[in-house]
Amino acid sequence: AAILFAARARFVRGGGLKTRRRRPGAAGAGGPIQSIMDELDRSSAARSPRGHDDAVKVVVRVRPLLAHESSGSVARVDKRLQTVTISDVDNDVPTINRQRSVAVHTFAFDDAYDAGSTQAEVYETTAQPVVESCLQGYNATMFAYGQTGTGKTYTMDGSEARDPVARGIIPRSVEQIFRHVAGHAQKNVRFLARASCIQIYQEIVSDLLAPPRNGIAPEGTSAVASPLEALAIREDPKRGVYVDGLSEWVVRQPSEVYALMDRASRSRATGATRMNDFSSRSHAVFVVIVEHSETVYVGEDGRELAPDDFAREMRSAGLKRAEALARLENRVKQTFRVGKLNLVDLAGSERVGVSGATGQRLEESKKINASLSALGNVIAALATRQTSGTTRKHVPYRDSKLTRLLEDSLGGNCRTTMLATISPAAESIAETLSTLKFAMRAKRVTNVPRLNEDLDQASLLRKYERELRRLSAKLEERNRNVVDQRCLLELEERRRRAEEDKRAAIRALEVRSREFMREKEDKTRLEERILKLTSQMISTDVGGNGMVGGRVGGIDDAKVSPARHTAAEYDARLADLERERERIEHEKAQVERYKQLLLKQRDIMIALTQRLNERDEQIMALQDELEAYDRNQAALENKLDEKTTQCIQIQRLELEGGARAALHEADAARHDVTVRRADNAKLMRPLDCAPAAAAAVGGA
Fold it and tell me: Are 399 and 374 within 8 A, CB to CB?
């Protein structure tokens, strides 16, 4: 027992959640043996309960309308086709009453649940395969994403963990895990379940199950008021991404897990907004780790022994303790499988204008939207990298604590399922379309799940031997099926030929029967005609003999009159038959004419249809030409407007230039007039002085 405990402790400390890698050159890992083992590993990995393990599975759930949502439903779910259709009008309004164009968006997912789907239906079809993957030794994650108030927490936790109808995915997963443990636990098979709960509040990672540093918070208080210690997210080559200092609680029954869930729920940050009275203000991750240990006892001859047989053999050996322990370590082989189940309840995205968040709620909304935006960037980068086939695109895992914590779940060693919850209300159509588009991008993300199993060399070889035997049996069965299939095909071909021969013989017999019946009817008619003709001849002979023998006229008339009556009736019947034949021939001719008329009408309809198709094509071509002409005319009108504007500007410039020239000419003219007036004044000044001088001289 001490050796087994030490082996398990070494495995857990060495990173039990990682697949053990064999070093080249190690024992049993050389050359062709290693290639065979690698091929067996690939064949084992190919056998999986889920059809496409590497693709993220995406499901959508539509919650019912609330009492205050009076605008009607815009979401319609087709559960047969697994599609969700969003239209921008109320689906309850008849189509004839819709007066405007309707934008319709249809999205296809792995599963779709309408407002009438139950918690049990969602779990059985979506979450149960995720839990089965964890129990088989794989890492599995299921996270709920959507707008605030769309039912994420209700789907994950339920209204009450012990309510058989309303309980959510987490309580049902716990019950499935413990049912599996109870059904598979044996003397050489052991299970260990551990639970922990992580909260990311305003980019601070804390442990919801660890007692606060200053004492346990009173019941009903949230993590905002409780002094929870901030934890760091670290990465180790063996353990991968983990939360340093996170407490893990060993659980033995569902009631213990329910108590941990209640404790985490009381410590989680929640608050009231305009959209939700009990809104989650943090991201919560509930982690369940299931360890599966199987011990194999090997006898002296290499055969596997039952635990009781091995115990009797060890007691009968009578060895000392040290020798017994050495032989025990060599003959007891133990394998470990570790499955990690992450159940994530994300805080809902919200618009501040709609939720009415202020103060502390506003800061929480900013952090929530930022982390969800980082999650969208990670998914978009993964989808782009995996669809383009390149590995160079950077994936921003470190932009947020949420994406850092979910690094293995998005593109890593994990089987991931996303549950998108949406509201059918018309006022939330923008958030609904955003959520569905986010979910469609997540469908393109692929992971690389691996079995978390630790085996020693002997156990590994036994595993490969069992796998080889299974493949050999499968190959023999397939070869036998091929031979049996060939014989079956030959027998089927013989049976088909016998059936065809039987049907041909029956058809030939029916033809011969019809011919025989026709011959029999013809023979009957001929016999009747011969009898009639014979009776007529006898009647005629009897009548002639009576006339020659001179019998009494009354007796001769009595004998001749029936013969004449029969002849007349025969002629009448022949005439009726001839008229019937002519009528039938006439009707056949009419039917033939109608047939020809119908054929002509069909040809005319075909020709008209062809002409209509040609006319439709011509109309479409003319419409295309008209649209091209309209586009050309619009372009010409635009150019004409530009040219007109340029001409107007040129004319305005010309007018401005002409006005300046006229002003210049007027100034020049005024200058010339002024100069001329000055010259005239100079010329007139001597003339004005001459009379005065003459007058002065005369006075003298």
Answer: yes
State whether residue 570 is helix, strand or coil.
Answer: helix
pLDDT tens sequence across 201-257: 988 999 998 865 554 444 433 444 346 788 999 988 777 788 998 999 999 999 999
Tell me the CA distances in angstroms from 57 to 75, 431, 439, 564, 672, one per residue in order: 21, 21, 10, 100, 99
Residue type, 297: Y
How much of the chain is in helix, strand and coil states, percent to nearest 5? 60, 15, 25
Q: What is the mean pLDDT of the chain?
A: 77
The mean per-residue pLDDT over the stretch 110-120 comes to 92
- The listed range with the strongest mean pLDDT (105-119, 566-580, 657-671) is 105-119
Q: In the numeric block, which tokens belong to residue 579?
A: 């008229």
* The Cα angle at residue 204 between residues 201 and 206, in degrees rounded to 5: 85
Contact 332, 3 (CB under 8 A): yes
Instruction: Measure the CA–CA gap between 562 and 572, rounded to whole angstroms.
Output: 15
Of 144, 68, 154, 162, which Cα lies nearest the Cα of 117?
Answer: 154
Q: Which two tokens stand for residue 346?
A: 């994300």
Distance set, CA 53 to CA 48, 418, 447, 451 (Å): 7, 14, 8, 12
Yes or no: say if 62 and 107 are a contact pair by the CB < 8 Å rule: no
Supply 219's token pair: 């019941």
String of DSSP letters for 280-309? E-SEEEEEEEEEEEEEEEE-TTS-EE-HHH
Q: CB of 263 within 8 A of CB of 164?
A: no
Q: Which H or E run includes 472?
A: helix 457-549
Do the bridges between strand 139-146 and strand 332-345 make them parallel or antiparallel, or are there none, so unpaired? parallel
What's the pLDDT at 123? 94
User: What does the DSSP 8-state code read for residue 97?
Assistant: G
Closest to 171 in 3D by CA, of 113, 163, 181: 163
The vertex-309 CA angle with 305 and 311, nearest 5°, equals 110
Mean pLDDT of 149-160: 86
Residue 615 predicted with pLDDT over 70: yes
| DSSP secondary structure letters along 55-107 | BPEEEEEEPPPPTT--S-B-EEEETTTTEEEEESS-TTS-GGG--S---EEEE
Mean pLDDT of 289-304: 76
Q: Is the dihedral of CA 465, 471, 475, 480 positive or negative?
A: positive
Count of beta carbons in the 10 Å neighbourhood of residue 439: 23
Cα–Cα nearest to 417, from 676, 130, 685? 130
Instruction: Tell me the three-class secondary structure of 249-284, residue by residue.
Output: EEECCHHHHHHHHHHHHHHCCEECCCCCCCEECCEE
Q: 3-state class of 24 per DSSP? A: coil
Q: What is the DSSP letter of 167?
A: B
Tokens of 175: 């019950």
**For the packed helices 457-549 and 553-699, what is the interaxial angle rounded to 10 degrees?**
130
pTM: 0.57
Confidence of residue 53 (pLDDT cuts 50, 70, 90): low
Alpha-carbon gap, residue 242 to 12, rounded angstroms:
14
Residue 544's pLDDT band (cuts 50, 70, 90)? low
